[in-house]
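can u do me a favor
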């Protein structure tokens, strides 16, 4: 066989291999990368979007160094880890991260160690449109005109886990849960500050909040609408307009509600706030129920 023919066959094989198996399980981004690169450790991509196009499903994208890696739309199972440095997503007029897949079963997405900044003009920090099991760990989300996290999967069963995350200075809610069908959320060791509502559970959502705080929000710190359930444990709702507001069902255990501007606890007709143990409600916060005068209710 001639050397030319052999090299042609080898070249064709490599081309086919690249076309069929070119996506890597782990890819990399760098502030000095290039999206024309294969997103390997030695030839990293420039943006998360560029790396995602070269990442297998499921796979992982890691940041080699600090940098701004741009907005990204995710339609597959993936982990994006910003590492120990500042891995930023800086956007104006768009969401920071959008999750939108074409499959009916939930994809699994983990977002870790990311700084997501809307510079007061980005629309939403993280927008969820399709079924997903979403983990948000050790992130900062701030400066958006809309919600910090808008969790609104259109159909299917989905879940949101927010751990050790700081959401602040958003024109919409810090976390807004509006699933098209059943969804659950867990928010742990996180802070939601200076948003419209801290954590807002809409119909069909079940939320567990543990070890977290809602501070200085323009509306309620924690809120449920009709058809939503929320359990709050070892947490604080202070300096909001309303501490906790329920048109659905809220249960509280070892929760501090203090120094809210209008009222500490408020429930609409048909709404319920259940108190279990060791709750502290400030004397000036009290309880407001639809059709019932404001009064202080000492919780046990």
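np, heres the sequence
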């Amino acid at each position: 066989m001639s050397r030319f023919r052999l090299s042609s066959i080898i070249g064709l094989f490599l081309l086919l291999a690249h076309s069929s198996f070119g996506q890597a399980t782990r890819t990399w981004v760098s502030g000095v990368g290039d999206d024309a690169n294969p997103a390997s450790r030695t030839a990293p991509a420039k943006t998360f979007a560029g790396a995602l196009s070269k990442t297998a499903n499921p796979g992982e994208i890691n940041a080699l160094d600090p940098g701004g890696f741009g907005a990204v739309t995710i339609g597959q199972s993936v982990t994006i880890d910003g590492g120990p440095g500042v891995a930023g997503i800086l956007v104006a007029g768009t969401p920071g991260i959008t999750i939108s897949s074409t499959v009916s079963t939930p994809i699994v997405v983990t977002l870790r160690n990311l700084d997501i900044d809307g510079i007061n003009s980005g629309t939403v920090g993280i927008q969820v449109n399709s079924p997903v099991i979403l983990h948000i760990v050790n992130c900062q989300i701030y400066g958006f005109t809309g919600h910090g996290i808008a969790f609104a999967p259109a159909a299917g069963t989905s879940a949101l886990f927010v751990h050790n995350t700081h959401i602040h200075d958003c024109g919409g809610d810090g976390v807004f849960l509006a699933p098209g069908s059943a969804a659950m959320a867990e928010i742990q060791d996180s802070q939601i500050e200076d948003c419209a509502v801290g954590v807002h559970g809409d119909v069909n959502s079940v939320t567990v909040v543990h070890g977290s705080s809602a501070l200085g929000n323009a509306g309620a710190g924690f809120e449920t609408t009709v058809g939503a359930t929320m359990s709050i444990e070892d947490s604080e709702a202070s300096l909001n307009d309303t501490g906790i507001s329920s048109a659905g069902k809220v249960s509280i255990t070892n929760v501090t509600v203090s120094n809210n501007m209008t009222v500490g606890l408020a429930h609409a007709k048909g709404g319920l706030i259940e108190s279990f143990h060791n709750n502290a409600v400030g004397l000036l916060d009290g309880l407001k129920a639809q059709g019932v005068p404001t009064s202080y209710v000492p919780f046990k």
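Helices lie at 3-21, 48-52. hope that helps!!
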